[in-house]
Design goal:
Blueprint (H helix, E strand, L loop, with lengths): L1 H15 L12 E16 L11 E15 L5 E12 L17 E11 L4 E12 L5 E15 L2 E11 L7 H5 L4 E11 L4 E12 L4 E4 L2 E4 L5 E12 L2 E10 L27 E12 L2 E11 L28 E13 L4 E14 L8 E16 L2 E14 L9 E11 L1
Antiparallel strand pairs: 1-2, 1-20, 2-3, 3-4, 4-5, 5-6, 6-7, 7-8, 8-9, 9-12, 10-11, 12-13, 13-14, 14-15, 15-16, 16-17, 17-18, 18-19, 19-20
Length: 422
C-alpha cells in the first residue's frame, strides 16, 4: 500500500499541473518493427594472460521484435521480444538430442502509455530509458511509472521505479514486511535552439530490504542500495565545431547501479571506491572537415564511479563483444581518446581510436593494481542496403599493472557483425 500511495500522489500532482485536454485521435492498429544481428567473434587474452584460457572464437545471433498497439484515443502498448540471443549450436527442439537454453525467448519491454493531452503522457510498466548523452544513464532496464511532460522546448520526465519488489523476494523477512527498493526523481531536458540541447537528472533511491538475513542458519550482512544520483549533460554543434559532455554523481551505496546488477550482498571488502560517493565526467570537442571528423574524448572517474557500460570506445567501454572493461573499473580513471571518423562514401564509413587511460588502482595486488591501459582500435561500417549494415571491429588493449606477479599480455579481438533494422 505504501508504494501505491507514493506513486499515485506523485503522478496526481503531475497530472494536475498540466493541461489534460483530450489528446488528438489516432488510427488504431498494430505496428511491428525490430532488429536482428549475426556476429562472428574472435577474442584472445581478454584476461591479459592471467588464466590458462585459450583464445576463443564463436558465432552468435539475436532477433528483437517490437510490437506496438495503438487505441483510437492514442493510448498505446509496447512490448519487445528477444529471441535466441545465444551462440550458434544445434539446440533446437526438432533434434531430440539437442537442448534449448532456458530463457532464449523473453520480453524486455512491456508497458502502456496514456496521453492525457498533447502535452502530458503517462507510461507504466517495464521499459528501458536513456537520459543524457550515454555516459551515465543509458538504456537502463526499469519498471515503474514515468511522465512525459512537454512545455515548449522543454521536456520533464518525473518517475517512480521499483528496483526490487518485496513480494518477489526469496528472503522471507523482506516478503513478509513488503520491503522494497524504490527510485524516484525527474529528468528535465531542453532544446536551447536548433543546434544545442541539454538537461539535468536528479533521483533518490530508497532501500527498505533487511540488512541482516539468515540463510541456512548463517547471518549475512546485506548492503542497502540507497542514496542520491544526479547528472548534468549537453551536446550540440556550431558550424564545423561540436561539443558534448556530461558530469555525474552517485552515492557510494549505489556503486554500479548502471551495470545491470544489484549488489545488495556486501562483499565485506572496505576500500576506496566501494563505499565513497563517486563522480565522473567527460568532454568531447569535435571538428568536421568535409568527410573527416576529429574528436578528442577526455574524462575521469573518481571514488568508484562507473560509467554506463555503453559509454566508451571499442575495448574500453562500448558494451559489445570486444569490451574488456567499463570506464572506471579497477580504480580511478583519467583518460584521453582521439577519435577519427571518415566517410569514404555514402555507404562506407571508417573510425579509428587511440586511447590512453591512467588508472589509480584500488589495491597493489591483482587486476585492481591496474596503472594504465592503451587502446588502438578501428571500425569499418558498410551499408549493404537500406536497413542492412555490415560492421567490422578490431582492436588491441595494452595494460600495465603495479603488481609484478600479474600478467600483462595485450588483449586482442576482432569481429564482424551483420545487422538488420526493419
Amino acid at each position: 500500500m505504501k508504494k501505491i500511495l507514493v506513486a499515485s500522489a506523485a503522478f496526481l500532482l503531475v497530472a494536475g499541473a498540466v493541461d489534460t485536454a483530450p489528446a488528438a485521435e489516432s488510427k488504431p492498429g498494430v505496428e511491428l518493427s525490430g532488429d536482428a544481428r549475426v556476429r562472428a567473434v574472435y577474442r584472445d587474452d581478454f584476461d591479459f594472460g592471467n588464466s590458462d584460457k585459450d583464445g576463443e572464437n564463436y558465432l552468435d545471433s539475436r532477433i528483437r521484435l517490437t510490437i506496438k498497439g495503438t487505441a483510437a484515443g492514442g493510448a498505446y502498448a509496447i512490448g519487445r521480444i528477444r529471441m535466441m540471443e545465444t551462440k550458434f549450436e544445434d539446440n533446437d527442439t526438432d533434434n531430440a538430442a539437442g537442448t534449448v537454453e532456458p530463457g532464449n525467448i523473453w520480453m524486455d519491454k512491456a508497458y502502456i502509455g496514456v496521453p492525457f493531452s498533447d502535452n502530458f503522457t503517462l507510461e507504466a510498466g517495464k521499459y528501458r530509458v536513456t537520459y543524457g548523452t550515454g555516459f551515465f544513464y543509458e538504456d537502463l532496464n526499469l519498471a515503474g511509472l514515468r511522465g512525459i511532460i512537454k512545455a515548449g522546448n522543454v521536456e520533464i520526465n518525473p518517475f517512480v521505479e521499483w528496483m526490487s519488489e518485496g513480494q518477489n523476494s526469496k528472503i522471507k523477512q523482506d516478503k513478509n514486511d513488503d520491503n522494497d527498493s524504490v527510485r524516484f526523481g525527474a529528468n528535465i531536458s531542453a532544446d536551447f535552439n536548433d543546434n544545442w540541447k541539454g538537461g539535468v537528472l536528479v533521483a533518490y533511491q530508497t532501500d527498505d530490504r533487511a540488512e541482516t538475513v539468515i540463510i541456512d542458519d548463517v547471518a549475512h550482512h546485506m548492503e542497502p542500495n540507497e542514496g542520491l544520483l544526479a547528472s548534468v549533460y549537453f551536446e550540440g554543434k556550431e558550424g564545423n565545431f561540436g561539443l558534448a559532455g556530461e558530469f555525474a554523481y552517485a552515492d557510494g551505496d549505489l556503486r554500479g547501479f548502471n551495470q545491470f546488477y544489484d549488489d545488495h550482498n556486501d562483499s565485506g571488502i572496505d576500500m576506496i571506491g566501494w563505499d565513497d560517493d563517486g563522480y565522473g565526467g567527460y568532454l568531447q570537442p569535435s571538428y568536421t572537415i568535409d568527410a573527416l571528423t576529429l574528436a578528442l574524448n577526455v574524462g575521469f572517474t573518481m571514488d568508484g564511479f562507473l560509467a554506463d557500460p555503453v559509454f566508451g570506445f571499442v575495448m574500453l567501454g562500448a558494451d559489445h563483444s570486444l569490451t574488456v572493461m567499463s570506464m572506471g573499473e579497477h580504480g580511478d580513471w583519467l583518460w584521453a581518446g582521439l577519435v577519427a571518423k571518415y566517410a569514404v562514401s555514402d555507404k562506407l564509413n571508417l573510425t579509428g581510436n587511440l586511447v590512453y587511460a591512467s588508472v589509480d588502482g584500488y589495491s597493489n595486488t591483482g587486476l585492481d593494481s591496474l596503472e594504465s591501459a592503451i587502446e588502438v582500435s578501428g571500425v569499418l561500417e558498410y551499408t549493404i542496403s537500406k536497413g542492412a549494415v555490415f560492421s567490422w571491429f578490431a582492436g588491441t588493449l595494452i595494460p600495465s599493472f603495479d603488481d609484478p606477479t600479474v600478467e600483462d599480455d595485450p588483449a586482442f579481438g576482432t569481429y564482424g557483425r551483420l545487422q538488420l533494422k526493419f
